[in-house]
Model the fold of this input.
Amino acid sequence: MDKLISSRCNLQHWPDSYVLPPESRPGEEEFALCEVIPVIDLGQDRAENVQQVLKAGQEFGFFQLTNHGVSKKLMIDVLEVAEEFFELPIEDKASVYSEDPKRSCRLYTSIDYDKEKVHFWRDSLRHPCHPVDEHIRCWPEKPARYRELLGKYSVEVRKLSMLLLELIGEGLGQESGFFERGELNRVQLMALNCYPPCPNPSLTLGLPRHGDVNLITVLLQGPVHGLQVLNDGQWLALQPLPDAFVINIGLALQIISNGKLRSAEHRVTTNRTSARTTVTTFIHPSGDCLVEPAKVIINNHNPPLYRSFLYKDFLSTYIVDTYEGKPPLKRYTL
Done:
């Protein structure tokens, strides 16, 4: 528990174990908040939304989403209860703290604290959330409204995620319900992240450069920025929009689309004066799901770029390759 950054009394102390190698540091450069990453109004015509989502996925791998149907009050309440959780006394978080990465509901710090050479300025609570009834009993009991609010939120974000996958399926020419068949969207994980104020943001990161392994990711964030997206070799600092979700394409969806959609690498920077709290939802296939380029896309003019594999095997190699700094798709590319 003493490893958690959010539970330390004096964050002005700067441990050397958080100092990144010079080539990995964000440095002193000021990144202007970027307005070029697409903002999609989901209240527009469906056919237009299909084209907008596909275009954003092709060009950036990221977009922000407004008029998405999730209530503003629920979004505010969920961020508030996430902040309340990280502010709890250590003894109230002890029941969910674990250094075992296989534990389903787990509070931990950095990424893999005991194995990594350099740590990252983040605490995270991660747990499964679909179906809610199967998992809610392992969630934290405090704050008192955690289970109720996060349960409602999980259901609403799943509805939104399934709608986005429907739009993407339409854009790729798939039959209706493609992403609902089998085990393609079976797993839904949620991560509550706390990035406390950092005494020297130029030397460390909240999360390193990476691409998400899953299908799609739905990010809820407050007004404090920190997310940066790599585009054409430049880091773009994403401007948080009120009441909007940030959506990004995962590596599994890049493969299913045969590269038509791309998973953009991204990272999280820290802030000297303000804590940043986020709630992230990941939609994954089940471990035994076969992931491969969709057959409707493949033809003589568009051959498969990736080979087929079981998702659980991809998860295993993704962890190894990411840890070793290797491109996680290289071994699956034809």
